[in-house]
Design goal:
Number of strands: 2
Order of helices and strands: HHHHHHHHHHHHHHHEE
Helix content: over 70%
Strand order of the largest sheet: 1-2
Largest sheet: 2 strands, antiparallel
Structural class: mainly alpha
Shape: elongated
Distance between the termini: 68 Å
Radius of gyration: 28 Å
Length: about 400
């Protein structure tokens, strides 16, 4: 699709400039009408070719027709933005919705030079969203229902493509030993949340397969995070839920390696928050969240890992897994998780003194460690200090 500059040039307020602007404003409604008609024609043709392809998915000819009609449909929506919305914004006649739509369009277009793959997926997603919102606002329920199966299927593919793109970026930054991956982690969580908020509810309504109950269950998990104000702990917990949902919704698009890095990032955040939180009640809640994260990472993710780069890590996990299966109480579970995480922290070159201290305090509370008094003689007399063993 041809890309045109979105930069609005200042116009001198001469007589001829004013006349030109006036004529442009008068012509805009005509162009809006023509573009609207063309979008309707291309959309109807698209839905027809989509239905033919779905009924006969083995036909390459039908697939080619469907892909061609999809491309023409997107080009028509794109032309509508440039011919109508862009000029309305330029001439000061655009609504807030149209201004926001053009702003989003510009943001996505700016990705083209930096990351063409993400640009390609997000551009298509944006154009589809724009037309879907138009359909919803039109009140044509039958047309909306006819459009939704196509919309959900296409959106599934586009979201998977975006997440796969982020996964590749994450893998690249890890291999290059870059430290600041927070931006990529946030993009992954935001993309999953966007899908769960905007697409999953439609998918629940339109899906008639065995997946429907799973989709309903996953959708209900996230409902509690859609209202109210959230602190840092709530955001970490929300991202944990989203990551857990992604293992069912985007298994292959967010591979195990990328998902593991996301879990590790959340665990790090929870550790830091547990240390910083001084309120006893809040710290208890954050610590419980940390234990839940460690459990999800080890049980929901590592338990599905088939290939291990180091045999030692595989054997250690087997030992951990056998101990986990024999656990009978919440306290035993926390002790196991603390010991396991302490082992990981002790191998790190970073200073995790504060969280190690918190972990050891917990182990003392549970009777796993003891405070022993150590006495040494000095010139001034005996000096006592406590040592945890």
């Amino acid at each position: 699709m041809e890309q045109r500059s979105l930069k609005v040039l200042a116009t001198d307020k001469t007589f001829f400039a004013k006349v030109t602007n006036t004529l442009t404003k008068l012509l805009i409604p005509t162009k809006v009408g023509i573009n609207g008609i063309m979008i309707t024609i291309k959309r109807n043709n698209l839905l027809k070719t989509y239905e033919n392809y779905i009924n006969n998915p083995e036909s390459k000819g039908l697939l080619n027709r469907y892909e061609e009609s999809f491309s023409l449909y997107l080009e028509t929506i794109d032309k509508h933005i440039m011919d109508s919305i862009y000029k309305k914004v330029k001439n000061g006649t655009a609504s807030d919705f149209e201004k926001d739509a053009l702003s989003q369009y510009y943001t996505i277009t700016s990705l083209k030079e930096k990351d063409y793959l993400e640009y390609k997926y997000r551009k298509q997603k944006y154009l589809l969203e724009l037309d879907y919102e138009t359909l919803i606002s039109s009140g044509k329920e039958k047309l909306v229902q006819k459009y939704q199966p196509f919309y959900v299927e296409k959106m599934d593919g586009l979201y998977k493509g975006i997440l796969k793109s982020y996964s590749i970026k994450l893998t690249d930054t890890i291999s290059q030993k870059r430290q600041n991956n927070n931006g990529i982690y946030n993009q992954i969580f935001e993309t999953i949340e966007e899908y769960v908020t905007n697409i999953l509810p439609i998918k629940v309504e339109t899906d008639n397969t065995e997946m429907k109950n799973i989709l309903i269950e996953e959708n209900e998990k996230f409902t509690q995070y859609t209202v109210g104000k959230f602190d840092t702990a709530d955001i970490i917990e929300k991202n944990m839920v989203l990551l857990g949902m992604s293992r069912k919704l985007f298994t292959h698009s967010l591979p195990l390696g990328a998902a593991a890095e996301c879990y590790i990032a959340l665990i790090k955040e929870a550790r830091e928050l547990a240390v910083k939180t001084k309120n006893e009640k809040k710290q208890k809640n954050v610590f419980e969240l940390l234990m839940n994260l460690i459990e999800e990472y080890n049980i929901k993710l590592l338990s599905t890992k088939v290939f291990w780069e180091k045999s030692q890590e595989k054997e250690e996990y087997k030992e951990f897994w056998n101990q986990y299966k024999s656990i009978k109480s919440k306290q035993e579970k926390e002790i196991l998780f603390i010991k396991y995480d302490l082992k990981m922290l002790n191998r790190s070159k970073k200073d995790y003194k504060e969280i190690k201290k918190l972990y050891k305090q917990k182990l003392v509370e549970y009777g796993v460690m003891r405070n022993l008094k150590n006495t040494c003689k000095t010139i001034a007399g005996a000096h006592k200090r406590k040592i945890k063993v």
